Amino acid sequence: MTTPPSTPINEEHCHRILRAIDIIGTRWTGPILLAAVRGARRFKEYRALVPGVSDPQLTLRLKQLQARGLIERTVIPSMPVQITYALTPDGEELISALQPLSRWSERHLPADDA
Fold first, then answer.
1. For residue 39, what are the contacts with CB-CB under 8 A and spacing of at least 6?
2. Is the distance from CB of 50 to CB of 61 less than 8 angstroms?
């Protein structure tokens, strides 16, 4: 058994944690962030790495993640114009913060057969 953190979580911290969970719990957000970690840069690469997501939904989630500062959109002026997406430092920090939760879920939750 581990010892509790030395600084207890107060109500404000709890609300921030719940807001973070809302962000990562939004449908398609996790798979999109995972696709970015796996090297997706172009829209079609995200679509290929996130099976089942529609183009409008992927577009919406990428915009939302960009607005949150987790994904960076870069326009490359060329013919035709190229657009790439990549994790920002905040997005990378979020992925790192989720690693302990990932390890915990592997130990304590059964595999999803769905």
1. 45
2. no
Distance CA 4, CA 2 (A): 7
Residue 35 near residue 46, CB atoms below 8 Å: yes
CB neighbourhood size of 78 (10 A): 7
In this prediction the pTM is 0.82
- CA proximity to 94, closest of 68, 112, 75, 56: 68
- Cβ–Cβ < 8 Å for 36, 72: no
Residue 80 preceded by cis peptide, ω within 30: yes
Quote the pLDDT of residue 113: 63
Using a pLDDT cut of 70, give the percent of the chain over it.
Answer: 92
